[in-house]
Write a structure and sequence with these properties.
- With about 180 residues, this protein is mainly alpha-helical.
- The protein has helices at about 25-45, 50-70, 85-100, 115-140, 145-170, and strands spanning about 10-15, 15-20, 110, 175.
- It is built from five helices and four strands.
- A two-stranded antiparallel sheet has the order 1-2. It has a two-stranded antiparallel ribbon with strand order 3-4.
- A hairpin with a 2-residue loop joins strand 1 and strand 2 (about 15-20).
- The relative contact order is 0.17.
């Protein structure tokens, strides 16, 4: 059976208790799930194999992050946890890809290529997830500062990958500001 009916009254399970579906944690990991799907769409549209492999790794990291957030605040566990190493891996990737693509000093309009636009869209969903994680962190509901750092770097990575996909397609990004 693909349904249980357990959520029909508007509650969902955290690992350690039930909460309303609109509670901050389910809202946050739901947005992370949305980000994972947006990244999946970008991966399906990407033209470069390195981009695709990078996005698979990121999707797997977000799976770990969703699992980490699915534990009730009273449960401290170590198996599903974003660490400084996850953040560092993103930084290395951003630097490597950024060195191969010209990044202007101006805002750009998404949409020069389908893959680039999908990556920019995924970036905006990640930014929303970052805001929700920031609220959990600032409210003291979570204590892992690496979650925020990871999402911040991930949005940068998605921006760089979008410009990389545009660049590989021979497209110069459209500046947001009129000349």
């Amino acid at each position: 059976m693909l349904y249980t009916g357990k959520g029909d009254q508007g509650y969902t399970d955290l690992l350690g208790g039930r909460v309303p579906k609109y509670a901050p944690r389910p809202e946050t990991f739901g947005t992370l799930d949305e980000a994972t799907c947006a990244i999946g769409l970008a991966r399906a549209l990407a033209q470069d194999q390195e981009t695709k492999q990078t996005l698979i790794r990121v999707q797997r990291d977000l799976y770990v992050m969703m699992a980490e957030l699915a534990f009730a605040p009273s449960i401290e566990q170590e198996k599903y946890r974003i660490t400084a190493e996850h953040v560092q891996r993103l930084e290395v990737t951003i630097d490597a890809i950024g060195a191969r693509v010209p990044i202007g000093r101006h805002f750009v309009l998404p949409g020069d290529t389908v893959a680039g636009a999908a990556l920019d869209f995924a970036r905006t969903v990640v930014r929303r997830a970052e805001r929700l994680v920031a609220r959990l962190y600032h409210d003291g509901d979570i204590h892992n500062e690496h979650l925020l750092a990871y999402l911040n770097r991930l949005s940068s990575l998605l921006f760089v990958l979008a410009r990389y996909e545009d660049h590989r397609a021979g497209v110069t990004p459209t500046p947001a500001k009129e000349p």
